[in-house]
Amino acid sequence: DLAFFDGFTQFVGRRLLAGDAVVVLATEQHRSGLLLRLQQFGVDIGSVLNQRRYVALDAAETLKAVLVNGVPDEELFSRKTAELILGVAEGAKVETSRIAACGECAPLLRGEASIQLERMWNKAIRQYNVEVFCGYSFQCMEGLGRETSQRISAEHSALISA
């Protein structure tokens, strides 16, 4: 959890302090802990909430909305992602290029489903010009096996080990 909080706090905090909007898709425990860390990082939480620049959603609930038989559905994902990103842009009064997203949805899936979700996010990154930061624990990656972990890692532009 410490590496998760450090990475997410740095990513989210910097974007919020720069005036950007951020969408966080995480567990309740991580959303609550992140808020505390962001305050310590210097983010005025009340202000970013009032400006609708900080949107925190439950990862599992958000993921359910794009799954069909336990697998991400590209059409559902595309529709829900458009609603989310465009809704945040409108609410926060920012361009989509000023929106960042971070989360832990893909680690809730296993194997090929995780890879499919990562590929769908990659399309959304190109379409909306958003920046995305994914959080995987070492335990999660080890549990997926070497080949699957390497394939998931290959879907990312950069990896940070902590």
Whole-number mean pLDDT: 86
Strand content: 5-15%
Distance from N terminus to C terminus (CA atoms, Å) equals 10 Å
The proportion of residues forming helix, as a percent range, comes to 55-70%
Count of DSSP-assigned helices: 8
Largest sheet: 4 strands, parallel
Query: What order do the helices and strands follow?
Result: HEHHEHEEHEHEHH
What does this structure look like?
- There is one protein chain.
- The strands form two sheets. The chain has a four-stranded parallel β-sheet with strand order 2-1-5-6, with helices on both faces. The chain has a two-stranded antiparallel sheet with strand order 3-4.
- α1 (2-17) crosses α2.
- It is 58% helix and 15% strand.
- The chain has helices at residues 2-17, 28-41, 45-50, 59-64, 74-92, 112-128, 138-144, 146-154; strands at 21-26, 54-58, 67-68, 71-72, 99-103, 131-134.
- β5, α6 (112-128) and β6 (131-134) form a beta-alpha-beta unit.
- The protein has eight helices and six strands.
- The longest helix has 19 residues, at 74-92.
- By secondary structure, it is α/β, with parallel strands linked by helices.
